[in-house]
Each structure stands twice: as structure tokens, then as C-alpha cells.
Amino acid sequence: MSRSLECADLVRWRLEPPALPGGLYQILRQIFLRDPSKVALEAPDHPPVTYGELDSLVERCRASLEACGIGRGDRVLAYVEKSLANVFLYLACLSQGAVYVPVNPAYTPVELAGFVEDAGPRLVICDPHRRTEVAERLRGSGSPAEVAALRPDGMVSLTHPPAQESLSAGRTRPVGSDPAAILYTSGTTGAPRGAVLTHRALAANALALCRVWRFRPEDTLIHALPLFHTHGLFVALHCALLSGASILFLPAFDPGAVTRLWSRATVFMGVPTHYTRLLSHPGLSVGAAAGMRLFTCGSAPLLPQTWEDFRLRSGHCIVERYGLTEVGIITSNPYRGERIPGTVGYPLEGVEIKVARETDAEPGPGETGELLVRGPGSFTGYLASPDETARVMSADGWVATGDLASLAGDGRVTLVGRSKDVIITGALNVHPPEVEAALNSLPGVVESAVFGAPHPDFGEGVVAAVVWDGEANPATSWLQQALAGSLAGYKIPKRILIVERLPRNAMGKVQKTHLRSRNAGVFNTGP
After folding, report:
1. CA–CA distance from 98 to each of 187, 235, 495 (Å)?
2. Which of 74, 140, 246, 298 is least crowded, fewest Cβ atoms below 10 Å from its Cβ?
């Protein structure tokens, strides 16, 4: 029978965090080889992959990276759709010691070029049908990065193999303090920045989650999350693989597919949009979810009404949790104990939290302040951005989350808002200045202000107030179509309001609070 890291191994990790020779993949590989015949991954239109086969596939993919000249510390940017090959590639990067940099495949090649310029990858990997377009775009931007296509088996290859002298001189395995991944986020700083995460940080956070959520080899996870985001790449994937569980791997979220798979699964991880869509699906019932043991939700606030409606329809209380790309998962409602809707629970093992206000007075129980966190899952900083890093992380390791929270007397955390204007729509972050810049570049647009409004499906929907210079107001659909060439679809405003002027304060600053308040019901009248 297989054994996960849930007994003596976890105690050792709690007491003596190892240096992690070989990095995170060395821990994963120990789990893989304990029961190599067990199914690790199962996806539509793909034969099941056992843990033994997974280890072999990762090694082949790792060798293909090495053949492309990728060694320890080299950055590999992945611009690919979700697939099993994407999983093999990520694990191969961990094994090789390469730094994995996932980018949302919904980004346009124009947007991609900006990430490539900032991340400075040695290799950009894309889906085969995009290779020519991506290569031309990067050549036009002056990037020296090589472009390779990802094969279905996770292998990568270059059209022109690198010269022998450019290949890595032997293989040097990673250690815990090495960077494992760089994830771009605008969660605390506004403009997207690359958060650098080490092997040790990823391992520590995943192991803490395995403990608090009671993961075990007998579990089966439904994976319906994207792989360019902390939630799907680290939280879901790591928890399942580190516990030796099986994964039912879906290319995208589909409520019908998810409810059908509940009869074979025990765990589902989702975002608020997933739960609102499940509530609208006839397949949701207490009977359908009878074999499930855990539903979790994160990446965006879950409405208490959604929590309660799901409890009544499914018989399960969703475990809400909270985290950031920069620090991993910080808090979770308890697995055993009261789960209170609208709260995000208690700090994970090893995580310290506090709330701070602009005054020197320490907030009392129930009082609001900015949530600060310090823990083993924290990032080392933003890539090539020491000033931004210093702005959110103190010298002694406290990270300012940018979220406002209150602490109950027993330490339970309730989020009450965000101190930044970042919009979270369908669990994806949208930075308003980027959308405003794209709008303001269109002929006829004088200025614009982009903000979020409550949306019944996405949690928040992107809204733009636009001052138009012309005799006739434009069709808002024309403005949306005009943005499609420069912005990913989820960034394009779902509602565009033509206004005579933007509200401003005495200092001339646009009052987005006023816009949000005045248009809070904009999505109540239909799409």
C-alpha cells in the first residue's frame, strides 16, 4: 500500500526543514516511486498515467530541456494551454533546476513580449500552432530567447539545436534555496511583477496544506483550474502529488463534467465563479456529492449566500482559504471545526499574521487594518525590482498583503476589502491602468476610468467609464472589439459606460470609490 508524507516525514519537516538537496522534485519522486503502478493522472482522450510512467515522462522531458541548453537557474517561460504535457514540463523544470515562468495563454503575443522582456527567459515554450507567430513577435522585439514547441508527451525541441559550447556543462541538481518558479502577479503592487518562489517555499506551503486538509493516498482530486496560477499549479497539483493521490485532470472547468466526476472523486478545488456555475447546474445535488469529502474555494472572495446555497444543495460546507502569489496560502477554515461563511479561517502552521493601521495603535479584536504575513512559503522578492520588494516586504520578512482584514479574539481572519484597485474577475487579476491605457489609445476616447463591480458569475466584472469626444456616442461593442487585439479577453470591460466627465476630488484625482458605489448594480440588469 502506498504511503504519503503524512506521518514521520511530516513531523521531520515540521521540526527540521531540510536543505532539500535535489529540490522539490526529489520529494515528489520519493512519493511517485512508492507505488509506481498507481494512476497519478487521468485526462479525457489520454491514457491514464501511473506514477511510474509519470516519473519516466518527466525524466524524458528533463533530458529534452538539457538538450536545449537549459540548466540550473535558467528561466523557461511557458505560454501553453492547459494539458498533461504542461504538467510534465513543469515537473521537468523542477527536476532540472530550471526556473518555471508560466504565462496565461489568453494573453496576446503583444502582451507576451512584455513578459519575455521582463523575465529574460532562455527558452520560450508555446503550443505548436503558435510557434511561428511567437517567434516573429519576439524577433521583432529584439528578444534573444529561443522559441520551442511543446509536444503532447511534454518533450521540447529547437529547430536549430544549440551549439555544443552553449550547452550546460553537466547537470547540477537544485537545492531548497534555489528559485523554482516566477509567477507574475499584480496582487500587492499594481503593475504585474514576477514573484520569485523557491523550492523550499513551495514545499513548505504544500506540506502544510496536506496536513490541514488531511490529504491522503486514497484521495482523488478533480483538477479544473488553470496551470498558470498559484491555485492550480501549486495548491491543487502539489497537494495531490505530495500525498500520492490520483488526479482527474480536466482541460477547463465544466460544471457538467465536474458533477459527473464526483462519483469517482473526493476533493474539488474551485474559485467562486465555479461554485456559482455549479449552483446553476441540474447535476448538483446531495446525492451527487455524497462521496466527496472536501470542497475548497479561494483566489477571490466567496459570497456568504453562495456558501449557504451550496451547503443546502450539496450537503457540504465549502472550506474557504486565503493566500497570495507572494506568500502562498496563509489561512484556511478548519477541516474539523466550524467553517464560518465570509471568513478565511486561521493561519497555517508556521505562518504568522497581524493587522496594522497607519496609526501606532495596535488594532484590537475585530478592528480593521492591513493584513501582514510572515511564513516559510514567502517569496524572496520581485524579479529585478528591489524597490517594489522593499515596499511590500520588511527587512524582517513581514509581507504587506494590500488586503484589509480583522482578527477575531481566537485569531480567525475576516477579509473586509482591498486597499488597492486591482479587480479580481473569475479569480484572475486585472490592473485598471493597463486597460485604461488601451482604451485611451483608441480614437475618440478622451479619458477613461476602469473599476470593478459585483458580478453574479465572476465575482467582479470589469467596468469602464469612458469620456467620448464626438457627436455620436460609439457602440460599446465596437470599443470592446477594438481592445481585443491588445488585451486578453478577461481584461476587456464587460460594461462600458459613456459619461460626460469622470468624478474627481479637489486634487483632481478620479474618485473610483464613487464610480464603484454608483454602478454597484450595473450587472444586475443582464450581461
Report:
1. 25, 20, 41
2. 140
Over residues 317-346, the pLDDT tens digits come to 999 999 999 999 999 999 999 999 989 999
Contact (CB, 8 A) for 209 and 329: yes
Element at 156 (helix H, strand E): strand 156-157
Contact of 329 with 323, CB cutoff 8 Å? yes
pLDDT higher at 60 or 185: 60
Residue corresponding to grid cell 525524466: 59
H/E segment holding residue 249: strand 246-249
- Sheet strands (E) in 56-137: 75-79, 99-102, 123-126
Amino acid (1-letter code) at residue 409:
G
Q: Measure the CA angle with vertex 76, ends 226 and 195; round to 5°.
A: 65
Bridge partners for 296 per DSSP:
269, 319
Confidence of residue 3 (pLDDT cuts 50, 70, 90): very low
CA distances from 194 to 188, 369, 379, 395, 482 (A): 12, 26, 10, 19, 28
pLDDT of residue 164: 62
Contact 301, 322 (CB under 8 A): no
- Kindly report the number of other CB atoms within 10 A of residue 336's CB atom: 7
- CA nearest to 369, candidates 311, 321, 414, 306: 414
pTM score: 0.86
Separation CA 430–CA 416 (nearest Å): 19
Band (161; pLDDT cuts 50, 70, 90): low
Task: Report the amino acid identity of residue 87.
Answer: V
470: exposed, middle or buried (Cβ count in 10 Å: 0-12, 13-18, 19+): exposed
